[in-house]
Amino acid sequence: MHQPQHHLLSDDGTPADATDPVHPSRQLFYRQADRIPDLSLDSRNNNSHLFGATSSESSVGDVTQSHSEQQQETVIPTTSGLPSPEQLHADYSYRLHRAHVRAGHRNIVVGGTHGRYRDFNGTLIEVPEEVFAVRKAALTVFHPLTFCWLILTVGFSIAAGLGAARWTNKLSSLPYWAIFLPIWLSHGGILIMHIKSAMALSKFIHEANENRQRPDSTDHLDRVEYLALLQRSIKFGVKTGVLCFIVFIFEVLLYIRLCNSSAITLAQVYIPVWILTVIYILNGIVCKSQHLLQSLVWVLLFAVMLLSVIRVDYQLTGIVPASFIIALIIAILVIVTGVLIYVVYGHQIGYFLLTESQLTAGVLYSISSMLAIVVVAIMGGALHLPEIIQLDLFMITIFLAPFVVALAGLGAYFVTRDEFDRLLRYGGQSSNTPMRLRLEANGWNSVVGNGVAQIPMFGDVKYKPLDSAMKEMLSIDLFWLCCCSHFYSAEVEDEVNPYYGRPVVDYQSPTS
């Protein structure tokens, strides 16, 4: 059985055994700079003495004492002289910090780059070095995929600005291939990232197979960590690859339609989006694996495409006005904005427990969706300014269009990087959240308490029901938001048992 390796620190914080050998089966994933030293030998002996433990250097005669003498000389440990857990933790953190500073690591601070040593709130994470090394090696598959959103953001932002300039006739002579070129280049970058991820996966599998052939292999322990991480990485890669391929097919069909309107109909341009929309609608109706609002957004998107096909392909402009299609698009953006405000406001009142990256992404998403409503209203002619205000709305559209895409893309990139950091710290295993017991009139009942929800554009989000006092305060103090506060679940207080305290008459024991 493999035992975890540790350093022994002297009183000045320097390592006492610098020649500690590395287990041969862990050499593939091991990193010398990631070792976590342990407490000093003196402190261990002192703690052992406090607990009345026997030292390993005791003589054989002391061990072979008679049973009667052991009973007479039994020392009952007292807790009066023991240090508190906070003091032990502070001493360990101080020694660890001094050792790493002496070794050359200058960024062992709160929020530093060594994610193995610091948590989100600055507390120490005691992860075994072997486990951390396996996670770091397995996540080399996921690391290239974290740049997908950043690459797409650059390409689509440039294309959005050029497309808005062509639509407003500011650059009327701009060819369509120049508008789509940044997007197609970004798809090329996505392909390169997927190739790098596949190469990292092949390399990891090859090294794991070699490690499995060793006589002292610990692959049966390592696979507990890396199998879950590989599954998440492959799932993310397949999902992003399929979605990017569908969008790429749609872009090619749209380019053909814009260059030659008689070559292909608008209904044929929508074929990739038709398939994607129908799948998500059936997933929400049949499988019920997504929220009702999410299914409603896909239904509204399907209606937008259907009405635009009727208006353009069949020339029924009188039956389907353009303002009705613009209104449906604005309705979709309003629903998305409301959901984003619900999540961000839920974090402010303590219902959702967002990380710093998720909160930043939520703010960026909210600003992007609000500005998108303004852009759609301007382009659809639904927004008109008074004659006193002399502003060129078309120029505002050209500047806002790429800004909207950039904010949404950066938010998605922050969420992806946050997911990568959490997998590195906590692993990829699904956590089981215990249910809370509540006393009711009919007895004890299990109710859902804290948990993790999968929210689109945010990933895994922790939530905690509000207590009754907080719920009442939101309903009284924030009367204009009381309707919104009812959407957050609260902890239900235990019901008073009506039989508690009543005299028992003619009670018969079931065992009598």
Automatic annotation (TrEMBL):
Entry coiled-coil feature ranges: none
Protein name: Uncharacterized protein
Parts of the chain that traverse the membrane: 145-168, 174-195, 236-256, 262-283, 295-312, 324-347, 359-381, 393-415
Domain of life according to the entry: Eukaryota
Ranges annotated as biased composition (Polar residues): 42-82
Originating organism: Skeletonema marinoi
Region (Disordered): 1-22, 39-82
Record keyword Nuclease present: no
Keyword terms: Membrane, Transmembrane, Transmembrane helix
